[in-house]
Model the fold of this input.
Amino acid sequence: MKRYRIVCLLCLLLAALQLSAQQAPEPKLPDWSKAAGLDLAYDMTPKALTPAPAGYKAVYISHYGRHGSRYAYTSKSYTVPLEMLREGAKAENLTERGQKLLDDLETFWKGAEYKVGDLTPLGWEQHDWIARTMVKSFPGVFKKGSRIDACSSGAVRSIMSMASECATFSRVAPQVEVYAHQGKLDIQATRPNEGRNPFVYEGPDMPFPYAESSEAFFYRHFPNYKDVLARMFVDPGASLKGRDPYTVFFYFYMLVAGMNSLPEAERIDMDGLLTPEEYARLWEADNYERFREYYGYKTSCSSIVDDMIAKADARLAEGSTGADLRFGHDHVLMTLLMIMDIDHFGTVPEDPDEVADFFRTYLSPMATNIQMVFYQPKCCKKGEPLVKVLLNGAETRFGDIETVSGPYYSWPALRDYLNARTALFVTRR
Done:
């Protein structure tokens, strides 16, 4: 029996040694400039658009947009690193770089403590730019007599993002009627995955497709996390004080990435804390966690697709021009990308290491928006309505459905496709 136990212990030891000897998978993000993921700033550069097919004109836009750049949505993104650095200072465990970061973070926190989750000036500017671009790109949608209806989730940053766009529409297209609102009855169009939604859809069980937890994914992809801690702390292990490294780096990543959204005068210098490869690895770990979190929202968020279909059909039937705008959050918008299978977001690979090839948070930066642009035949012409989809102003595609011409889909065919997609996730509306 003793010999059997010794053999088992040796086997376990050998397995542990083999596991520790394994190298982490190669990062999936060679362009580390995208590593800020959900905290990337919106790309405010013009995008080339394919002209409308002959005999067609743009008449209506159905939109869902994420709020613009903001301070971190949780104070822990600032306070967890700050507490660790304060403890390190008391224990004389800070490196020179760690002491500088502590000094900078103390100053930063004094100014940011009561701004957590708030829209920044850049966030307002992003939505101003988006509204101006929509009017410039599709002037026929915003002609005299057009109507814009905008609704938002209850988050102040989303309401302020809506306010920015509506204010801009009122300035650059004063001939358009603009109405903005927020309330419980808007929840199915803005944030249906909220826990207190009385109208939430029901659907089939959708267990997460991978056995690997977010924590295990992090440790496998970022086994050398202590190298980062060593740049701030003389004794990296002592800096944790029983904290889970996965949780620590979840907040540390948001601290670093979130600097993109802040006024330049408030930003902390993070240079040298992460190598490009480490930043890319942290992005991939965060990307996996977001996929795990958002995966189950496909049932509830299908109500937004239904809202888009119903309002588009109503607009086309009455022959009115304008836009329906919805403002909310990244977890809703990225779920819509999965539901609609925009740019292959709906793909679920067999290997969890391939998630980052399809589900990519860097395609949902601050102020991300989906625009479905509808076209009708011009006066005295016949033909069915056409639609194209823009993601952050750039033309993209729905799944594998065929287009009529270039990026333009038949609306009846696309409507059937979208209804078929939501049928995968909804059993009761």
Notes: Residues 1-21 have pLDDT under 50 and may be disordered. Residues 32-70+119-206+296-423 form a domain with the Rossmann fold fold (CATH 3.40.50.1240). The chain has two domains: 32-70+119-206+296-423, 76-117+209-293.
